[in-house]
Amino acid sequence: MYRRSELPLPNPMMLPTRLQGSLNNELNDGETILWLDQPIASRMARGAWPIVLFGIFWSTFCAGWMFFTINMAMKTPADQAGLFAWLFPAFGLPFCIIGLGMLTSPIWVRRLALRTVYVLTDQRAMIISRSFGKTHVRNYTPEKLNDINRSLNDDGSGDLIFEKVISSHTHTHRNTHSLGHGGHRAGGGRSSRTRTSTTTYGFKCIKQAKQVHELIDGMVLASKPVAEQD
């Protein structure tokens, strides 16, 4: 019924113990695992390097800001120094922490990959991951697997994208006052800017992506009524 195309047999014992437990808790009675694997951690970490490059720029700016403000605070006369003198250096600390997160993002992405498993059963596709002591699961039933976007690398690895989620973020700010006609001061008013971001979900950075895609297609076909399979 299902074309395995030289795919290895699913072996849940390959997973970390807690991830095995999360998988067992998600399976329904009588549900059969057709394939499972974890993302290639090194390839997932490699995809985070653009974040690192931006983090270098971000952290350099933050370090310059901290150096300048701390230097100004230390030069402030003792009788004038107070909470306000050290307020600006403290303001930069959260941004430095964000920069540190960017610089170490490959480590965190790799760590998440090692705590993630992709599962295909005779009923659905699942993405199961563990982070901060919690289990996160995304389910894709056969009707959601008819339009898969596949990308392949030269070694046969690749991504199978099941879903794209577009999010919109609107930022509203107040404009400064400006001079109108005749030199009169005009009101500032408000303006807004909307930015969109796209998040993709699926089996990312997997080995033998084409063969897994074929296995998914076989599961989707087998789930249809007999009259629709012809």
What does this structure look like?
The protein is α+β, with helices and mostly antiparallel strands and 230 residues long. It is 37% helix and 29% strand. The chain contains 6 helices and 9 strands; from the N terminus they run αβααααββββββββα. The strands form 3 sheets. It has a 4-stranded antiparallel β-sheet, sandwiched between helices. β2 (116-121) and β3 (125-131) form a beta hairpin. α3 (49-75) packs antiparallel against α4. The protein is elongated, with a radius of gyration of 26 Å. It starts with 16 loop residues before the first helix and ends in a 7-residue tail after the last helix. The mean pLDDT is 82.
**H-E string:** HEHHHHEEEEEEEEH
What proportion of the residues is helical, as a percent range?
25-40%
The major β-sheet equals:
4 strands, antiparallel
- The parts where pLDDT drops under 50 for at least 5 residues are none
Structural class: alpha+beta
- How much beta, percentage-wise? 25-35%
Keywords, separated by commas or semicolons:
elongated, 230 residues, alpha+beta, 3-stranded antiparallel β-sheet, 37% helix, single chain, 4-stranded antiparallel β-sheet, 9 strands
Write the layout of secondary structure elements.
Elements: H1 17-26, E1 33-37, H2 41-46, H3 49-75, H4 87-103, H5 105-113, E2 116-121, E3 125-131, E4 134-140, E5 149-152, E6 158-174, E7 178-179, E8 185-186, E9 190-206, H6 209-223
Antiparallel strand pairs: 1-2, 2-3, 3-4, 5-6, 6-9, 7-8
Helix pairs in contact: 3-4
